[in-house]
Amino acid sequence: MASNYKLSITRAAKQVDGLHGFALDQPQTSQTITDVELSGGRLRFFGWVLADEDGAVPSVYIKEAGQRHPLPLNTERPDVINTVLGQHAQAHPQLTCGFDHYLQLTADSAELCVVSNDQEHTLFTLSVEGSLKVLEGKDGWLFLDNDANDSVAQHTGKMALGLLSRWGWQRFFKQTQQLAQPFALMIAPSKETVYPQFYPIVKAGQAPIEQMLALAPADYPVVYPVSALANAAMRTFRKNDTHWSLPGASVASHQLLVTLGLGEHSRVFANDTYVERDVIGDLGNKLYPSALSAEVSLKGANYHPQVVYDNQLPNFGRALIVDNPDANSDHKLVMFASSSGYSMLHYLYRVFKRIIFVHSAGNVDKQLLQTLGGDFVVSQTNARFVIRAPKVGVSVKKLMQQKLRAETVSARATLLQKSQQQQQKHPDDSDIRVLHRLLANR
Fold first, then answer.
1. Are strands 133-136 and 32-34 parallel, antiparallel or unpaired?
2. Is residue 347 within 8 Å of residue 250, measured between CB atoms?
3. Which residues are CB-contacts of 38 (< 8 A; sequence separation ≥ 6)?
4. Which of 146, 165, 425, 427 has the highest CB neighbour count under 10 A?
5. 336: Cα separation from own chain's centroid
6. 8 Å CB contact between 374 and 351
7. In this structure, how many other beta carbons lie within 10 angstroms of the beta carbon of residue 287?
8. For residue 418, which of 440, 403, 389 has the smallest C-alpha distance?
9. Residues 6 or more apart whose Cβ sits within 8 Å of residue 431
C-alpha cells in the first residue's frame, strides 16, 4: 500500500548574481505524492532559469543526500521570453531556458541549485512531509507529534483535563460500575511514558492521564500498566510505531486478566516464542524514506484464523467475532476497544471461548451489550485519548452507518454482501445476526 506525503517547497533566494530570474513551476508546495512516485523517478521538476544578457548558460541541478542530479536546460519557454523579458521568443538566444525532468528522491529533503558566475546558489529547498508529524528521539525511536490530541502538550503538562472531561469521566466510572457483567477499563499508555529515556522532551507537570486516574474511585477496575511494560524482559513498544509491540500486548493482556480475576489463565503465554523481522510502523511510514525497525512477531498463535465474523469497516465501527473452542475457559468477552486492542486478541483468544470486539475507542453501547450478553466486559482506550471521556450509551449502529455512508456505492455493496455471506454461513449464531443487522441498518 502506497504512503502519501506532502511536499513543502520554499524559495531560498530572491535574486542571484548573473541571473535575470528563475522559477519552479512543478512540483508545488503542499502537493501530495506517494512513496512509489518519489522512489520510482516520477517526481517532475519543471521550471526555468534566465541568465543576464550575454551571461553564461547556468548549470542547474538537484542536490540531495550528498549527490548532484543535473537538470540541463532542455525545454523552450516562449512564455518566459514574452512575459519576463518582454521580447519576441522566436529565435531568442535564451528560448531554451526551461528544464523538465523526472527524478527519484532518496532522502526527505533536497535543494534546487544553480551555478552562476562560478558560485553555487540554492534557489529552492524541498522537504517531504508525512501526514503525521514525527518526533525523532534517541537511538532511532520515533514518537507522535502535532497530532489531534496534542501528545507533546499532554506529556509536558501544558494541557489539562477540562471540567467537561472530568465530569464525563466521573459519569463513565459510575455507569460502568453499574454494568451487570464484571468490567475493566484498559488504558494503553503512551510510549513516551513507558520509555521516557528515549523521548526528546522532558516531562513537566501533571498529564491528563494522571489527572483522570486521580478521579477514579479507589476500587475502580482500571488497568494502566506503565510499570509492567517498562520493566518487561522484552521491549514492549515498537520503535517506529505509536502502538505497543506484541510482547507489550502480552504484558497488557496479563494485567487485564489479573484485574478480571482470570490471572491464572495467562500462564498459556509463558511459552510464547517470537521471530524478529524488519517492519515499518505508523510513524516510520510518515518519514521518507520509510523508517524500518527490527520487531518481533508471535509464532504459533494467531487469532485471525479464528475470526468467524468481521464487518471489515475501517477503524471506528468495525466489529468482529473471534471463536476458539480450545480456549482455556468457556467465557465470552465483549471488548469495546481502540486500535491497541487488536494485538491483545492474539493472547486473549486463547483464554476466552468467544470474543466480540467493537472498535469504539472505549465507548460502550449499553443496549448492544444487553443484547449480546457476555461474561466479561472491557473498555480499552489510549492514554492520549483521555482528554475526551468515553461514554456509556453510544450507538454502535450509528458508528457503523456513518462509516458505511462514507464508502463508495460499490464498496458499500461489497461490505454488506460479505457481512451477509458470513451471517448465512452461521445462520444459528445470534451474535453474528445482531452485528450484521446493525451494519445492514435493520
1. unpaired
2. yes
3. 5, 104, 105, 128, 288
4. 165
5. 19
6. no
7. 21
8. 440
9. 309, 321, 354, 356, 372
Phi, psi of 286 (to 5 degrees): -90, -5
Average pLDDT, the chain: 94
What is the rounded CA–CA span in Å between residue 299 and residue 172? 38
Q: Could you give phi then psi for residue 278, rounded to 5 degrees?
A: -85, 130
Return the CATH fold of 4-130: Immunoglobulin-like (2.60.40)
Grid cell 517526481 — which residue?
43
Q: Which residues contact residue 237 at a Cβ distance below 8 angstroms, ignoring those fewer than 6 apart?
A: 191, 194, 195, 229, 243, 244, 245, 248
Instruction: Tell me the mean pLDDT in the region 146-160.
Output: 86
What value does the mean pLDDT take over residues 317-328? 98
Q: What residue type is 78 in one-letter code?
A: P
Q: Which residues contact 425 (CB under 8 A, 6 or more apart)?
A: none
Sheet holding 98-103, edge to edge: 19-26, 43-51, 98-103
Pairing of strands 119-130, 109-116: antiparallel
Distance between CA atoms of 218 and 93, rounded to whole angstroms? 84
Q: 169 vs 227, 381, 390, CA distance in Å? A: 23, 13, 7
Split at pLDDT 50, 70, 90, the class of 338 is very high
Q: Report, in this order, helix, strand and coil percent for the chain, each rounded to 5.
A: 30, 30, 40
CA atoms within 13 A on the CB side of 29: 7
Kindly give the pairing relationship between strand 133-136 and strand 354-359. unpaired
Dist. CA 257–CA 198, nearest whole Å? 29
Name the residue ranges covered by the structural domains of the chain.
4-130, 134-439
Q: Which of 440, 411, 342, 329 is nearest to 376 (CA)?
A: 329
The 10 Å Cβ neighbour count of residue 323 is 19
Handedness of CA 66, 67, 72, 75 (dihedral sign): negative
Q: Which of 289, 292, 288 is nearest to 278 (CA)?
A: 292
The lowest-confidence range among 32-41, 61-70, 91-100, 169-178 is 32-41
Query: Residue 131: which pLDDT band, with cuts at 50, 70 and 90?
Result: low
